[in-house]
Structure formats: structure tokens, C-alpha cells
Design brief:
Layout lengths: L14 E9 L4 E8 L4 H11 L11 E12 H7 L11 E3 L16 H12 L21 H33 L9 H4 L5 H10 L2
Length: 206
């Protein structure tokens, strides 16, 4: 769910619960501060589900914990979002309405399967899909379009270089071994797709 306004909400009153995501792959923990006012039932429903899991470190998954007993102030939550301690993601503060989240646990699910279901819905900050009004300042944002253009330019340059190299290699191979058979496409051999995305896709197809 997108923030209801392009401007940061900047709610600086009330108390906030903390949902913590710990990523095995990134070796980081990320705090999501969620305003308690108006969100009590949805938060308790989420906590009841998370407490059904015996969490442990598992390759390519995240663990989740929600603390509704020890709350923090809006000021503390805001200050935490400014910390520059993580390399992958910052802590985040949400001031809006939280939807009721159903993780889809089944009685026959093992702890690992429950962890997979939770990760598929909440992993890598997907809590943002269920809550409104993230408190962001202009300095917290990056120019995604510029970054994308830069990435695309670099990708095009690398692709052109790889293409030229492959042509030279292919020409060389033809001269040395005219009858060589085609093998696995170079693009697949050079795939840099993260392990966690492959694992996630595999689990969804189960």
C-alpha cells in the first residue's frame, strides 16, 4: 500500500511497536516502527501468528519478532531511522493504518514452512505493502530514475563488451575446434541472480 500523501506524515506523538526482521543473507536486523494508536488489533493478530513459529537461522530466510510490551516514543522511532549502521537497509517508521496480515499458516506446516510463508509476505521490508504513511524526509530518498539510468548504462556497456568478447572467443573456438558443440548459454553461466531470489521462487512453485 502506498503512502496516502507524497509528503512525510511526521507524526511525533504516541507510542510505537517494533517489528524486527533479521536477515541471514545480509547479516543485519531492520526495525519497523509501527504506530500503536489504531493498530492494536492488527498488531496483536500478527504477533499471535509469529509466536507460533520456533524461529531459527535458516539459509536465505529472515526471522521476525514483534514486541508489543516495550514500546518506544515517536521521537525515538524517528531518531532510529537516521542511524547509518546498516549497509542494506535503514530502520523505518510508519504512522498510518496497518492492515490485518494473514500469514497463511496451516496446521501441517513445519516451522521451516511457516518461516517461508512469513518471508514470502514480509521479507525485505514488505511490511510496507500493508501499512500507510511512512515517515520519510527528503534526505532519506534517492533518485531512483537516475540510479536506474546509471545501472542501465553500465549494463549496456557491459553487455556490449561481453558480446564483443563472446564473438572473439567464438571465432577463436571455431578456428581451433571447428566441430565443437554448443553448450550452456553464457548468460546462464554468468547469472548473478541472488541465491535468496532463486530459493524464494523455488518455494513458491512447491
Amino acid at each position: 500500500m502506498e503512502p496516502s500523501s507524497p509528503e512525510p506524515s511526521h507524526v511525533m506523538t504516541g507510542q510505537y511497536a517494533v517489528l524486527m526482521e533479521t536477515s541471514e543473507k545480509e547479516c543485519e536486523s531492520w526495525y519497523y516502527f509501527i504506530r500503536l494508536a489504531g493498530n492494536g488489533p492488527a498488531l496483536r493478530h500478527l504477533q499471535e501468528q509469529l509466536e507460533q513459529v520456533e524461529w531459527y537461522i535458516q539459509d536465505d530466510l529472515s526471522t521476525f519478532d514483534l514486541d508489543l510490551e516495550h514500546l518506544v516514543t515517536a521521537k525515538t522511532a524517528k531518531q532510529m531511522t537516521k542511524l547509518e549502521l546498516n549497509s542494506h537497509s535503514f530502520h523505518r517508521k510508519f504512522d498510518g493504518k496497518l492492515e490485518e496480515i494473514h500469514l497463511g499458516f496451516k496446521k501441517k506446516d513445519s516451522d521451516e514452512r511457516k518461516m517461508e510463508r512469513a518471508f514470502d509476505l514480509l521479507g525485505y521490508g514488505q511490511i510496507e505493502d500493508y501499512i500507510e504513511d511512512e515517515d520519510l524526509d527528503p534526505e532519506d530518498l534517492t533518485d531512483a530514475s537516475s540510479d536506474d539510468e546509471s545501472d542501465n548504462d553500465e549494463s549496456d556497456d557491459e553487455s556490449e563488451k561481453e558480446s564483443d568478447d563472446e564473438k572473439n572467443d567464438e571465432s577463436s573456438r571455431k578456428k581451433e575446434t571447428p566441430r565443437i558443440k554448443k553448450g550452456i548459454p553464457p548468460a546462464l553461466l554468468k547469472s548473478q541472480r541472488p541465491r535468496w531470489t532463486r530459493a524464494k521462487g523455488f518455494r513458491k512453485n512447491r
